[in-house]
Amino acid sequence: MKFLKFETYDELSTAAANIIASQIILKENCVLGLATGSSPVGTYKKLIEKCDKGELDFGAVTSVNLDEYIGLDGSNDQSYRYFMNTNLFNHVNIDKEKTFVPGGCAEDLAAEGAAYDKLIEDLGGIDLQLLGIGLDGHIGFNEPDSVFTKETHVVDLHESTIKANARFFANEDEVPKKAITMGMGAIMKAKRVLLVANGKAKWDILEKAFFGPITPEVPASILQLHPDVTVIYSEN
User: Fold this and answer.
1) Separation CA 226–CA 98 (nearest Å)
2) How buried is residue 213: exposed, middle or buried, by Cβ count under 10 Å (0-12/13-18/19+)?
3) Do 84 and 68 meet the contact criterion of CB atoms below 8 Å apart?
4) Does residue 138 have an active-site annotation?
5) Closest CA to 141 of 82, 66, 62
6) How far apart are CA 191 and CA 126, in angstroms?
7) Which residue pairs, CB below 8 angstroms and at least 24 apart, start in 156-162?
8) Residues 117, 127, 138, 153: which is the catalytic one?
9) What CATH number did the domain enclosing 135 receive?
10) How buried is residue 185: exposed, middle or buried, by Cβ count under 10 Å (0-12/13-18/19+)?
């Protein structure tokens, strides 16, 4: 496990983008596991810059996203499909037919979860998984629980997660209360994991996750068992 500390969010984003870019350069048809939220936005901007300069080619890349809100389709500007299109996919030469996000509007969400896990397995697994971390230690939408859930599954979002995400909505009442998220199985099978955490507010949960006991009450703590994790964090 590697820990890289930077003073600023811009430096963090540059470092994270360089790691992802190196993965694409080493294996042009790699499978990237991608994340949403505020932490990776800067990383995606840096990747777009590299693509614009001709330094990076997304043409053969496949992506699988961690999660999606239940009830929001890709046309909703708060959906994670919309987020990915707006913050990355619309600006690089990736084939959108090879970008996958769990279906939050599927009629049978259990079947959707099983199909998503099979998709990842059929792709040969994830080469590099990008993660953020919540203040309660959640990764994806794997919330604190009594067990680690292996499969892609539907979760009831914790009140703290709803409050944290309310800034993206008109008010807290509009934040969906459920999501579908990749489980710990696919995340832990990823060949490499890159976790980004911005600002001192995340330092306490990073310490609990990586230097405390492995417990589903701090979901990210399971990453202590992964053979190749890089944690990039910043002061500001």
Assistant:
1) 26
2) exposed
3) no
4) yes
5) 66
6) 6
7) 160/134, 160/135, 160/136, 161/134, 161/136
8) 138
9) 3.40.50.1360
10) middle
Q: Residue 140 belongs to what domain range? A: 2-234
Q: What number of other Cβ atoms are within 10 A of residue 14's Cβ?
A: 17
Catalytic residue among 68, 112, 143, 153: 143
Instruction: Determine which one of 136, 145, 151, 217 is catalytic.
Output: 136
For the chain, how many structural domains are there in total?
1
Quote the pTM value: 0.96
| Residue 136 annotated to the active site | yes
Token pair belonging to 185: 């199985």
Beta bridge partners of 156: 178
Indicate the residue type of 12. L
pLDDT digits 0-9 by tens, 6-20: 999 999 999 999 999
User: 67, 68, 112, 117: which one is catalytic?
Assistant: 67
User: 67 an active-site residue?
Assistant: yes
- Residue 165 pLDDT class (50, 70, 90 cuts): confident
